[in-house]
Specification:
Largest sheet: 8 strands, mixed
CATH superfamily of the largest domain: Glycosidases
Number of strands: 63
CATH architecture of the largest domain: Alpha-Beta Barrel
Radius of gyration: 31 Å
CATH topology of the largest domain: TIM Barrel
Strand content: 25-35%
Oligomer: single chain
Protein name: Glycoside hydrolase
Organism: Eisenbergiella porci
InterPro entries: Ulvan_degrading_GH (IPR053161)
CATH class of the largest domain: Alpha Beta
Helix content: 10-25%
Number of domains: 5
Length: 1005
């Protein structure tokens, strides 16, 4: 890309550099509304969208209407300059086609489980047709000895334990519409999946594939969990497929069925098991051959881009348990991807893994599904923090999670917040996407200066796996924990010292690796040094590659103890080779000295190890990105040496400006001193020729403007009162006392013998088509909500959902009209007028009569109007709307549930340029209004506006939609279950986030 084009795209990024959110199709889809939402996504700065079936979908998945709407959105999106992408499943994980594939039992996921019996418990009649093998052995503390296979009629000895190995299908559940996950190691099953999904898109979308529709997203496919209760597995089970034993012997030359105890148990402490390692390798190969390759081939044959991510990434254990080796799947994807859940997740190596394969195998885009599980309280600064380090480590295709079609029913609890019009900050969200798309444009096609290869230790984890080695997705075995700790430590020691590197996956190295004149080549990447650290076993193919590399003058570094095993068998070969190489302790100082290439960026600041940096080659010149990953601490006067160069440009991704910063030259190197704010980034270009650019602006304030203690204010929306406690009754004698709405819904479903709603419930479209979900009336119920009034309001409205199933609404016993006055926040909420005279001082009741179907649910209702709200022990109390507000949390000032925007009015700054610094506020961002507008969202939380007359705090929807009764205000991650708190997690009052200007901003002329 030529400089002029890159600069143009940096200043005004095109759609290819912009995010494409998961667009949650989770209700009764209407074409007009879908097109309206495409317009909104365009306004929000997105470059496209992934059309993604989610919990709550009412339109039949892969039905006639589905394909009509897919094509209509593709055509409309194309006209709007947006990319359209498909998603390959009804919810996730990919592979079952919403259960349509796994209706047939032979295609269902299978497990091989180990059951233990004492000699007295075992009888031959316990054998079944599913029994694969039976062994007798002695077991103590998970260690077995004296293994012998029992055949029919054999009797175990008294001191022996009998191990029965039996195959079984995965249990069916509602997440797969009453069926289960697919056997991804069964080619026939995946052919059926491709026929049920991909071929249907080809048939119904025709020549749109590869033109108006760019590609397809696969989400969390896996080969089944090994020794874990995660994802329908068990700690005593491993994935199985028919013909597994025959394939094992064919590929490895010995019998797996004769060695099943070695797969599940250990013969001695700290043992590495070749059987277990080979089992992992076989299931990895089968998963790739049966799932990854056929879908990849189909996409290429149809000129379709294959993207997405697989399960699970956060650690070595995560990927070993569910996948084997993630990096091997990436080879089959055009745009390999990752998933990053929760706000505080700092598993940086996830991005480094996928970027390594992308660089090695010439893949131009790296996708990240990000922001999942982060909650309604997320602000723009948090969105920046999560995305920043991923952009630094190579992510250039952002898939924000999640943009809801509707909030109806369970949709509103589907891993919020909704990054769409339901959030009050959606008109300003382009500020976030503009920022990241500029980084993507600046770095697109640039080659990272990474000459170090770090061998992945994933196969060492495989070899140490056994039944009991994991709990969920975490290793409990001390040796596996050591491998995890060393893996993370090596990453941090290198990255915190600005030594860039790629990971080397041994199977990819075996197929794509070669040596040339002292350089180790993997695909298109060249490495001058190779690091072996934290491995217990190495492949013989890797050792031979390293020997050739070393013989040609390459640098091989062994940090810490060299692997004691070759191909998982004890060997002296590596120990004899290591002393011929660079051997160092696994310590930071030694590691940095051995691995550095001399071109690293140097940063001097106190405790500045969390300032990361990468250097990239672009058009023969360099781009450098510096990032402070510390979200709490900034650094003043950080001294930075960018290395060789004469000239320097600063490219500001927040504004699109390109400026000339202050710097100095020493010994042919560029030095500069900067103040780097918490979470701050800098993007520099080091050109070969000097350009005339504007100088970086410096603020020079002279005097302070004193703010008052109270402010007049403007609300962008009516105030809100949430009513989420309800009593339930029916004509059959059911009477449920007042309880939170979701608990009441579960109690009603217990009474009606209906399954619970939730994130993994039976899809409404399936209930409607096969279960009478919208035709079989389950009950007619009466819901009663209560609130108090201290000051009678005027013009109050009631907002609720599922109006089509409401028979009657009474306010203090008086019926109101069911005619909707319009929508509120989302298409699921209708507003109804409450006549002023129906309300009374003191206690008030709202009584709803509702027809309840299996697709219905009991939800909160909301009062809207010009009133204040005070929270009393008896519940919400409507008061007069305050005339002014004070600096500090607005929730006790009459706005506990308000979630729109709030503008603090200012006077006395007309025609006066001033800078505003406001770091302490509750909300998504600040918007300054004056002769022009400015956004304050990222540190240092400063902007300049002439004629300032208002500071607008754009709030989040957390205090409206919750979770409102979770004892802990902040959770590490948010899922549908956070809204169903019990026991000590339940707060009978309201757990609210502080909102508004919490401290006075500083205003300087």
């Amino acid at each position: 890309m030529k400089l002029a084009q890159r600069q143009k795209l940096f200043q005004k990024p095109s759609r290819e550099f912009r995010g494409k959110p998961f667009w949650s199709w989770n209700g009764k889809l209407e074409e007009k509304e879908l097109k309206r939402q495409i317009d909104i996504m365009k306004e929000m700065g997105f470059g496209g969208f992934f059309m993604h079936s989610r919990t709550g979908l009412e339109t039949e998945y892969l039905g006639e209407d589905w394909f009509h709407l897919i094509n209509s959105c593709a055509e409309y999106g194309s006209k709007k300059g947006m990319e359209t992408w498909l998603y390959d499943e009804d919810r996730w994980p990919s592979g079952s086609a919403g259960g349509m594939v796994t209706k047939e039992p032979q295609y269902r996921a299978m497990f091989l489980e180990m059951n233990q019996f004492s000699s007295g418990e075992w009888n031959d009649f316990l054998r079944t047709t599913d029994t694969a093998a039976v062994f007798a052995c002695r077991i103590r503390d998970g260690i077995f000895t004296g293994k012998r296979r029992l055949y029919e009629g054999d009797v175990p000895q008294e001191e022996e334990t009998v191990l029965e190995f039996r195959t079984r299908y995965s249990a069916c559940n509602d997440n797969y519409n009453g069926f289960c996950y697919v056997n991804t190691m069964n080619r026939e099953a995946i052919d059926k999946y491709i026929e049920s999904t991909h071929e249907k898109y080809r048939k119904n979308c025709g020549d749109r594939l590869g033109t108006e529709i760019q590609g397809i997203f696969t989400d969390e496919p896996h080969r089944g969990g090994v020794f874990t209760n995660f994802a329908e597995g068990e700690e005593n089970a491993v994935p199985y497929t028919p013909g597994l034993f025959e394939e094992f012997e064919k590929r490895f030359g010995y019998s797996l069925s004769d060695n099943l105890p070695e797969l599940f148990l250990r013969r001695k402490e700290k043992e590495l098991s070749k059987v277990t390692r080979d089992y992992f390798e076989l299931t990895q190969q089968l998963f790739l051959e049966c799932f990854a390759k056929p879908i990849s081939d189909w996409c290429r044959e149809n000129q379709f881009i294959f993207t997405g991510h697989v399960l699970h990434e956060d650690s070595l254990c995560c990927q070993a348990i569910m996948q084997g080796s993630l990096m091997r799947f990436y080879e089959y994807m055009d745009y390999p991807g990752m998933d990053l859940l929760a706000e505080g997740n700092k598993c940086y190596w996830i991005a480094k893994q996928v970027d390594s394969v992308a660089r090695q195998l010439d893949k131009t885009k790296v996708l990240s599904e990000l922001y999942g599980c982060t909650g309604w309280q997320m602000n723009f600064e948090s969105y920046k923090n999560i995305g920043d380090w991923q952009a630094l480590f190579g992510v250039n295709l952002r898939c924000p999670h999640l943009s809801w079609y509707t909030m109806k029913g369970e949709g509103k609890r589907d891993y919020p917040a909704s990054i769409l019009h339901q959030s009050a900050w959606y008109p300003e969200y382009h500020y976030v996407e503009d920022y990241f798309s500029r980084i993507n444009a600046a770095l697109y096609g640039a080659k990272a200066d990474a000459e170090l290869l770090v061998i992945s230790p994933i196969e060492s984890v495989w070899a140490r796996a056994y039944s009991g080695a994991f709990e969920g997705l975490t290793g409990t075995d001390p040796e596996i924990q050591r491998l995890e700790e060393q893996y993370a430590a090596v990453f941090h020691m290198l990255t915190e010292n600005h030594i860039d590197f790629d990971y080397g996956e041994e199977d990819i190295m075996a197929r794509h690796g070669r040596t040339d004149n002292g350089t180790l080549l993997i695909g298109s990447c060249a490495y001058k040094k190779v690091l072996i650290a934290g491995l217990d076993t190495l492949r013989s193919s890797t050792l031979q590659l390293l020997r050739d590399f070393k013989a040609q003058g390459g640098t091989v570094i062994f940090a810490g103890s060299p692997p004691a095993c070759l191909d998982v068998l004890p060997s002296q070969d590596i120990k004899r080779f290591a002393p011929l190489c660079t051997a160092i302790p696994l310590e930071e100082k030694a590691l940095v000295k051995a691995c550095a290439n001399g071109r690293e960026i140097h940063i001097e600041a106190q405790d500045a190890n969390l300032i990361f940096a990468r250097s990239f080659q672009s058009e023969g010149e360099r781009m450098v990105m510096i990032l402070n990953t510390d979200r709490e601490k900034g650094y003043n006067n950080a001294a930075i040496c960018l290395g060789q160069g004469k000239y320097l440009e600063q490219w500001d991704p927040r504004t699109g400006e390109i400026m000339s910063p202050d710097y100095r030259l020493e010994d042919g190197k560029i030095h500069l001193t900067i103040d780097l704010e918490a979470g701050g980034e800098r993007l520099y270009r080091i050109p070969s020729r000097k350009r005339v650019l504007p100088k970086q602006e410096v603020f020079r304030e002279t005097r302070t403007f004193s703010l008052p203690d109270t402010f007049r204010y403007i609300l962008s929306e009516p105030n809100i009162c949430v009513l989420d406690m309800v009593t339930v009754s029916d004509t059959g004698g059911l009477h449920l006392p007042a309880m939170e709405v979701l608990k009441a819904d579960r109690a009603l479903r217990d009474h009606l013998q209906l399954p619970y709603r939730g994130g993994e419930m039976l899809q409404p479209w399936y209930q409607i088509k096969y279960k009478g979900g919208n035709s079989r009336l389950c009950d007619t119920i009466t819901l009663t909500y209560q609130f108090r009034i201290s000051a009678l309001p005027e013009g109050i409205s009631l907002a609720l959902e599922d109006l089509e199933h409401i028979r009657q609404i009474l306010i203090n016993g008086r019926e109101i009209s069911l005619k909707s006055n319009g929508k509120w926040i989302d298409i699921c909420f209708d507003t109804l007028a409450i006549p002023d005279e129906y309300l009374i001082p003191g206690a008030n009741t709202i009584t709803l009569s509702m027809d309840y179907y299996s697709t219905c649910g009991i939800e909160s209702v909301y009062l809207l109007g010009t009133f204040g709200v005070q929270l009393q022990n008896s519940g919400p109390d409507l008061t007069a709307l305050p005339e002014t507000i004070s600096i500090g949390d607005i929730t006790p000032q009459g706005f506990p549930f308000y979630s729109g925007s709030l503008t603090y009015r200012l006077e006395g700054l007309e025609n006066t340029p001033c800078t505003v610094t406001a770091a302490d506020f509750g909300g998504a961002l600040l918007k300054l209004t004056g002769d022009k507008e400015a956004i304050i969202a990222f540190p240092p939380h400063r902007a300049c506006v002439p004629g300032l007359y208002g500071i607008q705090v754009v709030l989040t929807r957390r205090n409206t939609f919750g979770p409102l009764h979770q004892t802990e205000k902040y959770a590490y991650a948010y899922s549908p279950m956070n809204f169903l708190t019990e026991g000590n997690d339940w707060n009978p009052g309201f757990t609210l986030y502080e909102q508004g200007l919490l401290q006075k901003p500083e205003i300087l002329f």
